[in-house]
Specification:
The chain has eleven helices and eight strands. The protein has helices at about 5-10, 50-60, 115-130, 150-160, 180-185, 205-215, 230-245, 255-265, 290-305, 320-330, 345-354; strands at about 5, 35, 70-75, 80, 100-105, 135-140, 190, 195. Strand 3 and strand 4 (about 80) form a beta hairpin. Bound molecules: zinc ion.
């Protein structure tokens, strides 16, 4: 199989520094597992060299040596060298030595192409050949509390990463007992009546992010910490947990009481809970709109138990599933007619977030 080398796709020097020797090398004998990742919440339409270059830019800005994945595969089925076969990755804390990794460049509920899956599988087969063992097949979320690699790729990993003729389940969210709501709940915990972890919302989430930044664990925030708990919060929190000496499941990026106390000095309580965030305006919640408020709304609906129309986790693009979940919430308020049309106004927003 052909892997487009770092030189061929135009990688910058390691650490953006010609004198850098790059990440440490890892003997193949130490590799025991194989991780599959996706790009994140936003679908990706392009293919080609721009794919590894964009990841490189992002990872360099996070202070990493370069692309953190061992390989990247685009939707055309091209494979790009990241850390390659021999270097330590930066893709899943605690698994960067034992785990080789591939990022398939899709996002959100985007469907991976057969070409991308075939290439990713071929990389896995070659990895097994080179290491002389059957590497454990894992999705990123098996190593840390994250939605990565998304429902579709995770279903593919769990199906054994079939190379050919794989038909993604029409309802990948349904593959998880309880649906999307249960999926989000796996990555959350409640302490003193406040939710922490993926999808949690509120001023207390912002406070955690700001405290992480103050203590020097803000490397994963591309934008500042905010009121919606994202993968960046999880990664920063996991780094903080490791600094306390936790490892494995204890450093999964979901707060526990002890680490939260260590971070904040005391535990916030639900009685101090902030009021609803300001309503961003009706124009954000219309067909054709794609923005962070839609994600925030969707995650809050799931939290409140109104996520049953999501077949995959809520995302930034306004969809009929968003409208139907909002409508269910509005009907539960005893509203009808135009008040329950599925489009949120200020009162829907206020009730959702308080
Ligand atoms: Zn990942």
């Amino acid at each position: 199989m052909t892997i487009i080398s770092r030189a061929a796709w135009g990688a910058k020097p390691w650490d953006n520094d010609p004198a850098s020797k790059g990440p440490a090398t890892v003997p193949l004998a130490e590799r025991t597992e194989w991780f599959v990742h996706y790009d994140g919440a936003t679908p990706i339409t392009r293919t080609g060299y721009a794919i590894p270059r964009a990841i490189e830019a992002q990872h360099l800005s996070q202070g990493w040596a370069s692309v953190g994945y061992n390989f990247v595969v685009d939707q055309a089925g091209n494979a790009y060298e990241g850390r390659g076969w021999s270097r330590q990755g930066a893709h899943c804390p605690g698994h960067n030595v034992s785990g080789l990794s591939v990022q398939i460049a899709i996002g959100g509920d985007q469907e991976p192409t057969a070409a991308a899956l075939a290439t990713a599988r071929a990389l896995y087969d070659e990895a097994c050949q080179r290491t002389g063992r059957t590497l454990a097949k894992r999705g990123h979320r098996d190593g840390i509390a994250t939605l990565c690699p998304g429902s579709r790729l995770y279903a593919w990993v769990q199906a054994g990463m079939p190379a050919q003729g794989y038909t993604p389940a029409p309802d990948p969210g349904g593959a998880i007992p309880g649906g999307a709501g249960a999926e989000v709940a796996r990555y959350q915990t409640t302490i003193n009546g406040l939710a922490y972890g993926y999808g949690a919302t509120g001023a207390h989430v912002t406070a955690v992010g700001e405290a992480l930044v103050r203590k020097g664990f803000g490397a994963h925030y591309a934008v500042g910490p905010g009121p919606v708990w994202t993968d960046a919060d999880t990664l920063c929190y996991a780094a903080f947990q490791r600094s306390l000496g936790y490892s494995g499941a204890d450093a999964d990026g979901v707060p526990g009481e002890a680490s939260l106390r260590a971070l904040l000095g005391s535990l916030p309580s639900a009685t101090a809970k902030a009021t609803a965030p300001p309503f961003p305006g009706r124009r954000h919640f219309q067909p054709g709109q794609s923005n962070a408020y839609v994600t925030q709304l969707g995650q809050r609906l799931v939290q409140k138990g109104y996520g049953r129309h999501y077949t995959v986790g809520p995302g930034p693009k306004w969809a009929e599933s968003d409208r139907r979940n909002v409508e269910a919430f509005q009907r539960a308020q005893g509203w009808s007619g135009a008040d329950a049309d599925g489009y949120p106004g200020p009162e829907t927003w206020r009730r959702l977030f308080t």
